[in-house]
Amino acid sequence: MSSTKTSDKAAKTADNILFTNQRVTDDDIYRNSTQFSAWSFTKESLNEIRVELANKTRLRYQQKIESYFMEEEAETLNDEEKEAIKLEFSLGISAEEQLQIVTLYTQKVQVFCTKLKLPSEVVATSMLFFKKFYITNSVIDLHPKNLIFTCIFLACKSENHFISAETFAAKVKQDKQKILENEFRLLESLKFSLMNHHLFKPLHGFYLDIQSVLQGKIDKNYLGTVYEKSKKMLINSYLSDAFYYYSPPHITLTALIMEDEQLILKYLELKFLGFDPETSSDSLTESQKISKNMYDKLMKTVSSCKTDIKTSFLPDRDTAWKIDARIHYFIDPSAFVKRFRAQKETASDITEEPDQKKQKVE
Amino acid sequence: MSTRDSQASNERQVPRNPSVSSSSSFNTTNNNNSTTAANNADEEIDGKYKQLEKLGKGTYATVYTGINKKTGQLVALKEIKLDQEEGTPSTAIREISLMKELKHENIVRLYDVIHTEEKLTLVFEKMDNDLRKYMDLVYKERLKMQQQNSQQVTNEASSAVPPEVSVLRNIINGSEGNNVSGETPISSITGPPTIDSSASNERMYTANVSKGLDPSLVKFFAFQLINGTNYCHENKILHRDLKPQNLLINKNLQLKLGDFGLARAFGLPVSSFSSDVVTLWYRSIDVLLGSKSYFTSIDTWSIGCIIAEMISGVPLFKGANEDDQILKIFQLIGYPRERDLVNSGWYINLPKYNGKIWDFANSGLDTIHALANTLKLNLETDFLTLDLLVKLLQLDPLRRLTTLEALEHPYFNDLRRSTI
Questions:
Q1: Does the predicted interface ipTM exceed a cut of 0.85?
Q2: How far A32 CA sits from the closest chain B CA (Å)?
Q3: Contact, A297 vs A305, CB < 8 A?
Q4: What is the pTM (predicted TM-score) of this model?
Q5: Which end of chain A is more exposed for a tag (fewer CB within 10 A), N or C?
Q6: A300 — alpha (psi -120 to 50), left (phi > 0) or beta?
Q7: Are strands B237-238 and B119-125 parallel, antiparallel or unpaired?
Q8: Longest alpha-carbon distance in chain B
């Protein structure tokens, strides 16, 4: 009896292959990937996670810093200083500030990767690893500058770009142990899902498809430049949050449209519609209406993706410097007191100066 | 993970809970809730699995049987020591990266990754044996049965269970005759095509006890092997190290691909892989000749070798070194020759090409006869088996069957027909 049961099961396996003999598409693979299940967010949910992290971290440090000043330095501080400390540390590092500083350091990751002449996939993976780590870790707990090379080294391993730790450390002039120190923490924060569906494969796919759809209507050299420029834009797009919100082909298509809107729209029209998208819906057949619907939906996604790619979280120099200084105060609170006193001294110097001048005049 | 001697299983006292043995109940890796920071999981996981007996030691990992304390589910714990020099070994990184994405009935599931002080533990689905060990056990059992039979009356022997099944019964019940556990006796849940015990019996009386597996079981395993590999290829992943030791079997005669330490994702373009992959005996001829740009065809060659090995019980090409391996392949399959009509010239630019000698050697026209001889198969009754093998063991990588084509080969027709 049970033997027939098992054989049914095996036959079913065979059936699945035989009767659902459809090609597995890249989209199927993407939808089943951990990139989709574990690392895709809505804007709201991602923001929520980031704000929660900022709040939790702030509370944790507030207690720590309070007890530090109460117990260890309470007697050396005057009221004014106590007030300043309270004000400084009550704010914590906001979710927005963390995002700004992380984006700045992600750019540094990109710069270092480029210097090391790493393949695009490794560059992109390094940047993603870096950004993902700081979704669940505060910059106060591990300063971004200490994670740059750990990310790049792990990305090399996971993207199969072999380089020994020794060579790597020598190339980037860093201490090897320092690089390896945080690798586990990084792996854990990445939930051990390391595989990324990058944007370069869809880009190559579009490149080929555009050529076949617009055959004879397009200069191949020109398309080559569009390809190269789009690729640069795509690498930069890893600085944005687009990767969490959209599928790789959507981001790629958006970048292509940003590069040459006229050309790509023409391609999409021919590919999906075969008629002018401005045609009023009354004169369309049923199947044309369906295509038009899909086309409109795609355009909507593209336009919202465009906004997200363009939204830069990069802080200006001044802001970056300020945030970085404040991270430093959290790590070493006594530095804040020192700085506060120094500032007061210079400030009083300045206020005294005019008096002296006055006296001279008198 | 891949090993389990029957002695070890004797000591197993853990009650099995059939309701949790399905893999879906372990789907903890696919967590949509991204707020669960890994930090929290760490403490909980620590008390989650208990380590049982050691199963084996590989190049970069030690494998233990483990048990999920909450559910009683047995698992395989692959412990990876951290390298002070390189951090987490890149093979482990690669295995984790790929296994996290692969969820298929013919691929060993990665349930969990646990990080403790000095090591990394991969928690895998527990399997009962690897294909190589299983075949050895079946052979030993067959020898034993033959000895017993020679002392008994013929009639009694005809009711005997085929060794393919009795071996599993020993694994599960701990010892022979001790069939008191509440589990379904394995003899009633054999693999789909019920093993023809009369055929096995016939073989038992021959002085030459077969080292291979029952033909219907070979087919069932072959199908699962190709099915699992096909899933990898669909996911754009090459296994690169298919061999009997890496194919794991459980008591339901399910076969699953394991050990993805050498596997890698492929994209475009595919070139310059290391040619030092795939254990020598299962290495494809193009790689042996020095090809560095290979594709899914590297895995299909290994599949051909493994199916042949299941039939005969011994590795098809047992080369002592690379050159000997190449020679053994050519001696059986034939040499690629420039004057042959069907010749894409795939080998001309390979480092080890030696046209002068090859061109005067045997052509590959009667591969099917050579294979039939070696595997002791009948050209007529076993035609489909031989045809599949010839197509999998094509020298020209571009002419080798893809996994999808192999699944559609008429050899598997009776597996399909049984549903209708």
A1: no
A2: 7
A3: no
A4: 0.78
A5: C
A6: alpha
A7: unpaired
A8: 69
